[in-house]
Amino acid sequence: MTKIRIACAFLLFVFLSPNRAYPDVAGAKKEGKVTIYGSLETSTMNLIEKLFKQKYGVDIDYWWGSSTKVTDRITTEFRAGKQLFDVTLNHRPLLKIMKKEGIVGNLNSPAFKFFPAEVFDSEVGPAYRNVVIGIIYNEAHIKADQAPKSYDDLLDPKWKGKFVMADPTRHTTTTQWLASMPKIMGKEKADRYIKGLAAQRPVLVDSITPASQKILTGEVPIGFAFTKYIAIYGKEGAKLDYVKVDKMLGDGQYLGISSKPQHPNAAQLFIDFFLSEEGMKILADVGETVTRKGVYPTFKDAEKIKFTDVDELNKEGFAAKSKEYKDIFLK
Amino acid sequence: MTAPVRRFVQPVYLLYICAGLCLAFISLYPTFFLFYGSIRSAPLGVAGHLTASNYVQVYSDPETYKLVVNTLIFAAGASGLSVIFALALAWITVRTNAPFRGLLELTAVIPNIMPSLLVAISWVLLLNPTNGIVNQLCLSLFGLAPFNIYGIPGLIFVESLVLSPLAYLIIAAALRGMDPSLEESAKTSGSNELGVALRITFPLIRPAVLAAATLNFVRAAESFDTPAIIALPARIELFTTKMFREAIGSFPTNHNLAATYGVGLVALVFVFVYLYRRFTAEVERFATVTGKGFRPHQIDLRGWKYFASLTALSILVLMVILPFLTLVLVSLMPFYQTLSRAALKALTLRHYVNLFQDDRIYSAFRNSLFLAIMGATVCVLFAAVISYLTVKTKVIGRGLLEALAFIPWAFPGTALAIGILWAYINFPIPIYATLWILMVAYITRYLPYGLRAVSSVIVQIHKDLEEASATCGAGLSTTLRRILFPLMRPGLVAGWIILATFFIREFSCSIFLYSPGAEPLGPLIYFYYEEGSFGAMAGVGVMTMLVSVLLVAATRGLTKGRAIA
Known about the structure:
heterodimer; A: D-Maltodextrin-Binding Protein, domain 2; 10-stranded mixed sheet; two-stranded parallel sheet; 13 helices; 19% strand; globular; B: mainly alpha; MetI-like fold; 2 domains
């Protein structure tokens, strides 16, 4: 049933999307720049910008923020009648909210056919990357044979107070991630597992970046973090690895185009370039789990990761889960 | 009314009206939007109705009051400790003959230009219980790791180090401008150096000490940088962390709730402004800059002078040297890691090379320098006018000016930025999405800091000098130019340095208000931090500090020759 729904979403999206004008490169050059608000790391966007500018002579003005802050800025500007962004890189639920309010328009690109049907959302199109959360450890402090082999192994008393994770009461991705655990281990087991995690008194930090930093320095050598850090820091000589479990949860990231772009040709040109093999390879090279067929990140066994998208939570859902985790984790 | 007096009074009122209107606008306009936001059920631009529900939600929660208590303990501790550090340092460098005091004085200003986020991160690297460098060292030497940064004492300690340089600048300026004759009289009457310090020097600089303590108290109360790094992992909940978690960092963002917390802080800060004004009500008691010569004499510490230098150096090791060296070390690491032989072998200059190749970094430096130089100049001149009117004149409603200037100060940076965003996004002069909105925000937010620095010097200028000038037939502009401005110069320079160093690294307002193409350094450093690019962050941080040191040194060089004797 789920597969039928996914296929329908894909077909609906592809066939009901408006007929698009193929990017007018001359028009884009004339516009001179494209303004992007997004949550993709600036260092990665710098690499994209370098190649995009070299190829088309069009600048990228990039404003980086967490998805929440990006959405906040876009909606505040929209309400004041100033739609300054052309393209946004954002979460699916936030894009859906913005689409409902008429802030973002319909997206289309010839590159869509290179993305598998299961990453398509009927309203906002394909996820271009999945930010996968796994159990990451520092090999300088924990040998592979001593590392956990499954999610359950982390509940062993020897890891009590010795692993790090983002605080699920204030980090929305972690809230969603924990709330989606039933998708990979069933509801009963997931409930037990979450309580078990809390009882282990993990070191709680503000978000996943400081968690990864603690793993990297060895201050807390194991914890839940994005798998992409293995590739990013691996290039610099860090020895990080991840626990290869059957299924991993992650957060899909999507593109949105302004309903009234100030630089329409440059915006379309950027979207096509970004989703092209060339664009996706830039992301994969820095460890991102991109969804374009045949493009994989550079860390070990990345192509074998079985990814499951986290559930969307609405405002009430976030509030309820946040309260539930507060009672479990902060008491 | 005699002719000269009439000539003197009228321009003052003109000045008062102009300054008052400007101040009322920059202060009340965003505040109105924020207050209006706190009593609405929806963000501005969305249909909603007036409601008290935001206040009910915030103030019916018993946890809010626990947070206020935690915040008061944190702010009082950090402010008190910072004043102790600053007082010791200022006295040693300004009033004694301790060796190397010039170098120590210059070093004391450095942390003021060190982004506080970086100071907190450095101390976590040094004192975290698992692999902090100092703990590791103690473990290898004594077999135990005694320090744990993750607690209220650690939080207070780090924040006090962040706050000390500002207190130092204010207290040192006051010590430099003191009339030595009072001290000399006490000595002639048989008092020893300690007696003079306790009975004469300290009471004379009390307004500056209170000013520094008040400033730092509020700065700590609204601080989010250090709590984000230390309080959050330690599960210590403060007002700002709660506000961030429930209002600004939540999904979806609740601006109305953020505004409600902001209004509460305004009320709290007004209490402190009132207390401060009571402390300094009798300004005449502190007027020490008279028509007489007033070069403060240096106290000969004899054999103790080396001990004094060592004490100052110890404070500076904590304030500057250890965090700075840690920062340099991180900037040389390809990625952020524990100090080890392997880590030392892998050191690289890559992040510094990148500084000169990245257009984004270049444009951020250019934007921040413009904001620092231009913004600090406008802000300090504005502060001087307001300070003069509130401290030295008897114009009706002068207290209102100071109260107006303090309103935006009470808002945490992010909440104020929301007010400014709402206020200026549809402003007839299109400053939104340009560098100018940042300048307006910086001036609005940091005016009280300039005001305090300038006021603490103006308070010490005796009104005899103005009266003598007026009696000799000089008008307001001549008195300002020939008498007050030269005497105010130490305060103006101190204020300018404080503001320029704040502006060059500001991020809490900038992060909300900057636009692509007009990005300053603060958000750039913050983004590197958020992305986990600690090496790049430390590289930009070290370079920001070097640029700031050059800026401060150039300012001091330019003004030194003209400094009043």
